[in-house]
Amino acid sequence: MLNVIRPDGNGVSATDRGLAYGDGLFETIRMRGRQALLRSHHLDRMVVDAGRLGIPVERSDLDAEIGRSGSDLASQYGDDDWVLKLVLTRGGGGRGYRWPVECEPSLIVTSSPMPMLPPPGGVVAALSQFPLTVNPRLAGIKTLNRLEQVMASREFSGEEFELIMANADGQLLEGTRTNLIIRMEGEWVTPPVESLAVAGVMRQFALECLRASGHTIREQIIQPALLSSPGLRGLYLVNSVVGIVAVRRLGSVDLPVDDGLETICDPLKTLE
């Protein structure tokens, strides 16, 4: 069974393990009317990653809730795109970290207006001073434990669209809310999934598009020096809400900008 908590219903239990321990995961989905972008990708990831955490959930239940939310909430936003957030927790009960034998998962449903998209021509990004740690057993899962991203976000000064986070060795991993894809001469480069705190569905979709178009992709740890190498053709920030965003300046360094990834990969074609 799945305990669904909607905006017009009862609130989250004070004993919910997602609230107490970050025991759960979430998806943030861009909606256009009643349709969802990257719907299958979001569903697949949530089911697989819930399984990694030992939280039982049926794909059909999640899919039905996306459809129900689209029908119930789309009218609030008129012709504008909007954002649907699904938070799946292990449920309530139990004192301490060990969960009860009988635990009914909770699905918390909320929505919000679509954030303002960045203007064409690229954005400004900066390097965060707050290091990002990744537990290999949890790599890639969009868990509720996002405190490092919260703390890094305190560094926003107003001009930056995004802050790029590195590990303790200074290797670039991802943005506070985006994944990185780098265009080099003759190939595309992105950090491997096992190095990431969050392996985004937009990252996955973009890599699928590139491979289908015959492009070479290299998954490797990113050293900062790569972004000042002569072969650099562009740095892109990607997530499922804002899509694909080129970076024109990183800190005080101007970067080359092109629309190569956007012309290859159009997430609007995934509406369902």
In short:
With 272 residues, the protein is of the alpha/beta class.
Radius of gyration: 19 Å
What oligomeric state do these chains adopt?
single chain
Which CATH class of the largest domain applies here? Alpha Beta
- State the domain count: 2
- Helix share, percent: 10-25%
Total strands: the figure is 14
Mean pLDDT: 95
Order of helices and strands: EHEEHHEEEHEEEEHEEEEH
How many strands, what sense, and barrel or not for the largest sheet? 9 strands, mixed
What is the CATH architecture descriptor of the largest domain? Alpha-Beta Barrel
Please describe what this structure looks like.
- The chain has 272 residues and is of the alpha/beta class.
- The protein has 2 domains: 111 residues, 2-Layer Sandwich (D-amino Acid Aminotransferase, Chain A, domain 1), CATH 3.30.470.10; 148 residues, D-amino Acid Aminotransferase, Chain A, domain 2 (Alpha-Beta Barrel).
- Helix content is 21%, strand content 28%.
- The strands form 2 sheets. Strands 6, 7, 8, 9, 10, 11, 12, 13 and 14 form a 9-stranded mixed sheet that branches.
- It starts with a strand and ends in an 8-residue tail after the last helix.
List keywords for this structure.
272 residues; 2 domains; 28% strand; alpha/beta; five-stranded mixed β-sheet; D-amino Acid Aminotransferase, Chain A, domain 2
